[in-house]
Amino acid sequence: MGFGEYVVARHQQLFADAVQHVSAVFQCMVIATAVGVAIALATYRSAWAGNLAIMSTATVLTIPSLALIGLLIPVVGLGVPPTVIALVLYGLLPVVRNAVVGLRGVDPALVDAAKGIGMSPVARLARVELPLAWPPILTGIRVSTQMLMGIAAIAAYASGPGLGNEIFRGIASLGSANALNQVLAGTLGIVVLALLFDAAYVLLGRLTISGGIRGREH
Amino acid sequence: MGASIELENLSKRYPGNPSPAVDDVSMEIRPGETVVFVGPSGCGKSTTLKMINRLIEPSSGRIRIDDQDVTRIDPVKLRRKVGYAIQSSGLFPHMTVAENIALVPKMVGWSKARVRDRVEEMLDLVGLDPKEFHGRYPRRLSGGQQQRVGVARALAADPPVLLMDEPFGAVDPITRDHLQDELIRLQHELHKTIVFVTHDFDEAIKLGDRIAVLRERSHIAQFDTPEAILTNPADDFVSGFVGAGAALKRLNLTRVRDVGIAGFPTVSVDDPLQTIFDRLRGGPHNELLMLDRRGRPYKWLRRGDLMRAKGSLARAGQLVHDTVTRDATLHDALEAVLIDSSGRVAVTGRRGEYIGVVDMETLMNSVHEMLEADRLTAIEHQHDLEEARHHRTEAELEGGA
């Protein structure tokens, strides 16, 4: 059967996989953003701590994803746990790096002004530093998400959720009637989802980046 | 109304540096007074200022604001009572003009309605149209406008004290001049206690009720009125800082409002031609000032202009090039008078409306009076100093005998 017919015939399965894929990536991104920004906030003020944070998250990224998931299976078992841990770890680097760079890039005169008019340390962070560092942080989140969309496919190796299952099933049965269709459906599905995600981020940027700093270079 | 500020043996030492950045500064600033710290760069004037709102914690010494020791209170609370304006405005780029101004009033817990009214009031106060500027982001303002908003933000919660750290350092000279005039006008209305840091002595003369000339480590070389510093510098360091042309600088100390502003016959652009004719022919003047529809100076009209006008005044007369406000210095007024061919300059109010004129003769007379008065004070001062020295020598002689 042709690719079109295959998609129509399996649309329920494909849709369920796609939903799981998106939901896994989205949830891991939320965790990665929270953890990443927290790491950045804890380290950006000191030169060595900030650099250490960037370097260690960068090191994680050099581990091949298949290997990392493989290493996690004996520790946390199959299914959701290794997927979530791997995705969060990979998602950290762009968020941490952009958050550290963004927070460091806030004009010291503005921080001084914020202090000078009587803002408390928390208010300074929440009302001045984070909003000003938000555009680069959002860019980091965008990059992370794109990356995780692909890496999430590997999670199927550890019986994780998502469109990766489609791809792995196809690869396992290469030569059979629907093998190519399966790989193609999984891959194209991921590409389409990634594009949708990106569109959502553009919208999010419009809604959350103040008009006063939108469109600046970052 | 302003508060008094008292600095008592204030010092700042940085670890690893044997000589203090600020060494044992004591000074009393009276309520409602504008005190300018002036000195070469690196003399610690900015550090001294920042110790007043404890952006820099003093290593030793005490600060009292209205007799309350603020060296120990919560710095965040202290700063909400002390306005702070810095170079290149320090406006938050992600907040609108209104949000920037509303920051401190909101933090100290004003109601929404009160904050909203206050923002309008502050914009009006610094000469920006609230309707136009309310929702703008700082990047869509000129440097001068940003600085105005910066001052508005610093004053929004009505603090008794305003600290200004080279606030006009980053704007062009013309804008700086306007901003200085504005600040003087504001201060006339508000009577805050202002501490202003600059390295520009002319700015210090123009703005300060008293000037503290600082040398390295914030040692006070002289702390006195601008007049006294100009006519009687304490030592070579101060006279070096005053620079050449003290007599000309003296012109910066007197304002147009202090000399006689004379009336001048005016007509409006809406007046019929015949009325204008009659006034020119009938009156003792052979010149008139024509005002535009909003009452602002528009054209100087001479008799000869009317002869050539032939029924329409559209091309007749000389456009008014330059006007001065009542808060402008005599220096500015003299400049304007020298440029204008008629030898006078129109004085305008806050919204540019006509108030009167100042001419060359008035200016010359007041300059002469002013310099004469300065000379007398200087001689008196000299006399006092000599007497004091005389007494001291006598005392020493007696002590030695």
From TrEMBL, chain A:
It is a multi-pass membrane protein. It comes from the Bacteria. The chain crosses the membrane at residues 24-44, 51-73, 79-96, 147-163, 183-204. It is found in: Cell membrane; Membrane. One of its GO terms (biological process) is glycine betaine transport. Gene3D superfamilies: MetI-like (1.10.3720.10). Pfam families: BPD_transp_1. GO terms for cellular component: plasma membrane. Its main location: membrane. Keywords: Membrane, Transmembrane, Transmembrane helix, Transport. The keyword Transport applies. Residues 18-201 form the ABC transmembrane type-1 domain. PANTHER family: GLYCINE BETAINE/L-PROLINE TRANSPORT SYSTEM PERMEASE PROTEIN PROW, OSMOPROTECTANT IMPORT PERMEASE PROTEIN OSMW. Belongs to the binding-protein-dependent transport system permease family. This is ABC transporter permease.
UniProtKB/TrEMBL annotation, chain B:
This is ABC-type quaternary amine transporter. GO terms for molecular function: ABC-type quaternary ammonium compound transporting activity; ATP binding; ATP hydrolysis activity. Signal peptide: none annotated. The keyword Transport applies. Keywords: ATP-binding, Nucleotide-binding, Repeat, Transport. Its EC number is 7.6.2.9. It comes from the Bacteria. One of its GO terms (cellular component) is membrane. Belongs to the ABC transporter superfamily. It comes from Streptomyces lavendofoliae.
